[in-house]
């Protein structure tokens, strides 16, 4: 590996005395809200985890969330920026609630949420310039990558997951022919590696998402919230069947469902507020994943699968947002001056 040649330049425009830009405010706010939620969820997981390796993993994730929140608060306080309300272990967690998930689920959950965190930090890093914010997001990204390595080590060591499908190494370099885009008529080529990768990723995300929303529907107190969770559960199942079928049509394996890792408890460990925020956030992550999937897709039938999913997931996110607003649960992010 090569080392980059140094460029010795400096500018006062990146100094910590500079005002926060809109991008810096936005990503710091999102980081605080996401980790405020994660701290609460993980504090409950720690009450019931028995496997020692998984317990250490959950503790590491919990400590990172607390650390990220603390640094974000420090930056906000320097700028007299109001600290978001977020979520609290006192108001949004019932530590006395019985076990809702088996230990194995916690590892899959952490992989999904670590992906979400890396998305915030990865997108944010190129957009932030102030030194303290830039250093913070680099730290967040590197720490979450270290956590992801621990997650994958446990998943593989304990046999909780299959790796993405194996496909043949190409014999030679080839160029695309005119039937590359076919998906419904004529000669339909096999899925290429990028399409397979994103189906695998979407399935992996959705089996975790389905198990979580199934559990939330099981324990939600508010009837409207419960019904929305049930619709989200059924929607996720339909999408999973479509994605899995595309891999199975190519005789390729796909990740398995995790529904069996949810217990039959109906006593909620979380407030409806935090559960609804969590699922709205997870479903919005799916929209971003669809964008990445469509960007590398070439077959018309695959594009249609993602288009259908996008429309229905967007509707779920809108309904969740309306319900949060009706209940006074949605905090407003920083916004431009109204001229």
From TrEMBL:
InterPro entries: DUF3231, Ferritin-like. Gene3D superfamilies: 1.20.1260.10. Pfam families: DUF3231. It comes from the Bacteria. This is DUF3231 family protein.
């Amino acid at each position: 590996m090569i080392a980059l040649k140094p460029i010795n330049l400096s500018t006062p425009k990146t100094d910590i005395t500079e005002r926060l830009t809109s991008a810096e405010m936005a990503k710091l706010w999102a980081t605080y809200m996401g980790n405020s939620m994660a701290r609460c969820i993980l504090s409950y997981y720690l009450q019931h985890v028995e496997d020692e390796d998984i317990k250490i993993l959950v503790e590491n994730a919990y400590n990172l969330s607390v650390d990220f929140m603390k640094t974000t608060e420090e930056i906000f306080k320097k700028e007299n920026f109001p600290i978001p309300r977020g979520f609290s272990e006192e108001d949004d967690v019932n530590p006395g609630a019985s076990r809702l998930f088996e230990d194995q689920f916690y590892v899959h959950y952490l992989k999904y949420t670590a992906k979400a965190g890396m998305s915030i930090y990865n997108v944010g890093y190129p957009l932030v310039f102030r030194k303290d914010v830039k250093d913070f997001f680099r730290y967040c990204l590197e720490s979450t990558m270290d956590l992801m390595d621990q997650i994958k080590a446990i998943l593989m060591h304990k046999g909780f997951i299959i790796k993405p499908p194996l496909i043949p190494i190409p014999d030679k370099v080839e160029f695309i022919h005119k039937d590359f885009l076919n998906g419904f008529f004529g000669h339909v080529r096999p899925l290429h590696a990028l399409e397979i990768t994103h189906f695998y990723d979407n399935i992996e995300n959705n089996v975790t998402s389905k198990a979580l929303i199934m559990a939330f529907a099981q324990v939600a107190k508010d009837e409207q919230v419960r019904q929305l969770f049930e619709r989200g559960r059924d929607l996720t199942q339909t999408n999973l069947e479509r994605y899995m079928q595309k891999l199975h049509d190519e005789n390729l394996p796909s990740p398995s469902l995790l529904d069996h890792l949810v217990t039959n408890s109906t006593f909620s460990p979380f407030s409806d507020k935090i559960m609804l925020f969590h699922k709205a956030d997870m479903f919005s992550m799916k929209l971003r994943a669809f964008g990445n999937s469509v960007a590398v897709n070439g077959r018309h039938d695959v594009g249609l699968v993602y288009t259908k999913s996008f429309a229905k997931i967007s509707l779920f996110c809108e309904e969740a947002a309306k319900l949060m607003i009706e209940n006074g649960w949605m905090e407003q992010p920083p916004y431009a001056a109204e001229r």
